[in-house]
């Protein structure tokens, strides 16, 4: 898989992509860095100033003194992610299988991230998986305004209120899992499959596009950034071919009406023989509130 990631990034850059999304837990930053070394530079096909590279301050690195060391070589953007126990284990657990949590105030973490901007170590900082109240909490203390909120978003989880709130506050919204993440490990056999939604398929037939292209065009047309995942060259190319057609207002509204408030990205753990949401026990868990 590591070789696939490197080659996929190189292909994406050659196809015209200029935003690469990373995270420590993806275990692919080395391969992405290798792809950059071979592709980006003053004498290469892509110039560094064209690129925007995003990574996440991982769950276990939210103490202010851990923020800058965790940055390492991330180049442009840095967003706060979840919140687990401090240390070097990505997903620390208690003996019963539940997550071991830390309770550092994310506003303290934000202040430490602002120092990265002041030092010129990153160009922008932002948030991931924050609800609207938590966003406003950060804005109340921020001297550097969050540039972006990265959050799960697709027609089954339209996030209309959250997107409106972010746009009102001047934050860009980036949609992760815009196609429903059908390849994730905890996929359930009875869950709705976004790419098989009949209305989306009909629109794909109408425009001579794939269902994925319809889903991505819907997001782009409502001013939401998308970060679809693929290592397949044909799909990488296809996911970029969104700008030779437009959906009508009626079609945009129809896709938005598919909302089920359905989250695909709710990692599960086994506790006492039962599958439970991995992070829902934390008092700052963002998804217990409406948006």
From TrEMBL:
Domain NADP-dependent oxidoreductase: 4-259
InterPro entries, per the entry: AKR, Aldo/ket_reductase_CS, NAD(P)_OxRdtase_dom_sf, NADP_OxRdtase_dom
EC number: 1.1.1.2
Domain of life: Eukaryota
Top-rank EC class of the record's enzyme: oxidoreductase
Site feature: Lowers pKa of active site Tyr: 56
Protein name listed in UniProt: alcohol dehydrogenase (NADP(+))
Keywords: NADP, Oxidoreductase
Upper classification of the organism: Eukaryota, Metazoa, Chordata, Craniata, Vertebrata
Provenance organism: Phrynocephalus forsythii
PROSITE patterns: ALDOKETO_REDUCTASE_1 (PS00798), ALDOKETO_REDUCTASE_2 (PS00062), ALDOKETO_REDUCTASE_3 (PS00063)
Reactions mediated catalytically: S-nitrosoglutathione + NADPH + H(+) = S-(hydroxysulfenamide)glutathione + NADP(+); S-nitroso-CoA + NADPH + H(+) = sulfinamide-CoA + NADP(+); a primary alcohol + NADP(+) = an aldehyde + NADPH + H(+)
Family: Belongs to the aldo/keto reductase family.
Active site, UniProt feature: 26 (proton donor)
GO MF, one annotated term: alcohol dehydrogenase (NADP+) activity
Keyword 4Fe-4S: no
Record-linked Pfam families: Aldo_ket_red (PF00248)
């Amino acid at each position: 898989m590591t070789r696939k990631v490197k080659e996929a990034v190189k292909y994406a850059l050659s196809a015209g992509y200029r935003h690469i999304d990373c995270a420590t837990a993806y275990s692919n930053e080395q391969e992405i860095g290798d792809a950059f070394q071979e592709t980006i530079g003053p004498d290469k096909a892509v110039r560094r100033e064209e690129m925007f590279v995003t990574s996440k301050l991982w769950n276990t690195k939210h103490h202010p003194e851990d923020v800058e060391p965790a940055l390492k070589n991330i180049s442009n953007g840095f967003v706060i992610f979840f919140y687990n126990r401090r240390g070097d284990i990505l997903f620390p657990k208690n003996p019963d299988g539940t997550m071991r949590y830390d309770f550092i105030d994310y506003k303290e973490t934000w202040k430490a991230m602002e120092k990265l901007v002041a030092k010129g170590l990153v160009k922008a900082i932002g948030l991931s998986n924050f609800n609207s109240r938590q966003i406003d909490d950060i804005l109340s203390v921020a001297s550097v305004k969050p540039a972006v909120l990265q959050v799960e978003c697709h027609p089954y989880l339209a996030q209309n209120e959250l997107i409106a709130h972010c746009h009102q506050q001047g934050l860009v919204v980036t949609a992760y899992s815009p196609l429903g993440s059908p390849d994730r490990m905890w996929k359930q056999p009875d869950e709705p499959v976004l790419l098989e939604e009949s209305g989306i398929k009909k629109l794909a037939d109408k425009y001579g596009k794939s269902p994925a292209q319809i889903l991505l065009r819907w997001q782009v047309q409502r001013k939401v950034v998308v970060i679809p995942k693929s290592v397949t060259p044909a799909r990488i190319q296809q996911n970029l071919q969104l700008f030779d057609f437009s959906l009508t207002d009626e079609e945009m509204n129809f896709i938005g009406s598919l909302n089920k408030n359905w989250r695909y990205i709710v990692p599960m753990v086994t506790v006492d023989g039962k599958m439970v949401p991995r992070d829902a026990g934390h008092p700052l868990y963002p998804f217990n509130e409406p948006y």
